[in-house]
What does this fold into?
Amino acid sequence: MELGPDATLPLGIGEVGEAVSDLQARLAELDLPVDDPAGAFGPSTAEALRRFQAGRGLPATGVCDQGTFNALVAAGYHLGDRILYLRHPMLRGDDVAELQRRLSALGFDPGRIDGIFGTQTEAAVREFQHNAGLPADGRCGRETLADLVRLALRDGGYDLVTPLRERLRVRAGGSRTLEGRQIAVGDQGGFAPGVAALAKALYVAGAHTLVLDDPNPSRQAAEANAAEVDCYVGFRIVADRTSCATAYYRGFRYESLTSKRLAELVQRGVPARLALEDEGICGAALPILRETRMPAIELQLGCPSIVVQRTVPLAAAIVEALSCWVAESFD
It folds into this structure.
């Protein structure tokens, strides 16, 4: 069950009622108890919420918005609580993420460990079931889970296959250069000049560009996935900042190392080109980063009046970073 945005959300300090009691109970179940009175959103509830948000790659605001509440609901699922299978809308939760981790540890590729039961996760379940001599129906129920647990390796005794597959996919996209690569460039509104400049710079470098300008990040992710692009680069203008940061996917107990490396390379060159403060890289579970199946980053840019005048050097810095990133995948 999810609360609607028009019902009681967002919840912040000073709120009282059953919705706050529910929030506090969910936090307590996740070993994040609060000292505030039941049903009263005080400083202790805000601090517990910030700790939860930080651990999930969410903005640590201490305010419970729809995204945070959805994450709390997802965190309440444990592997074995329910049958996991492909449906629409797709199942989401920590139980799905744990299933993906176990499959990845055994060498079956579920795609990104994002807690979303999609087609690649279903294919990995089917492959595991086939190898285990089980009916390959793609559904993780009691029998499939029992074999997953039985075959589990000790913590620290294995590497996940997912990071390796991410790196190999970059190599499989072509040569050591951007020639022939397909790069999605996304903007959720407000930075068309930057998108145009990057598209032009990528064209000069021999890459193909898929421009995505849908204001809904989930729809952008779906378009990028359908096109099977090699990489996603997104822009977000943050008017009240004077800095530049680059975000990559980090969820609960997993981060995309391939995306993280691209974020590092981009952040190494962009702040100086724009003369903005360097806020570094940050792992985040933003929908555009979580739901894309390819390496993905989002540049979060302040000082829009300055940035819009420096789109050419910005684009050059991103292309340089992408070129280096692709070349590194062959080393």
